[in-house]
Amino acid sequence: MKPRVFVSLEPVARLAETIPDLDDLDIAYVAARSGASGLIVANPADGGSRDSLTRFDRPGLPLLCVHASLQHVDNLSRLGNAPDRFLISDDGRTVQDFHSIASLAERLVGSHQEVSVLIEPDPQVLKNLIRARVQWVVFATDRVHHAASRAQADDELARLNLIAALARKSGLRVMLYGPVEQHLAPSFAQLEAVEELVPLPTLWQLALRHGWENSLNIFDRWLR
Question: In sequence order, what E strands does the chain have?
Answer without folding.
Answer: 4-8, 38-42, 63-69, 85-89, 114-118, 136-140, 173-177, 194-198
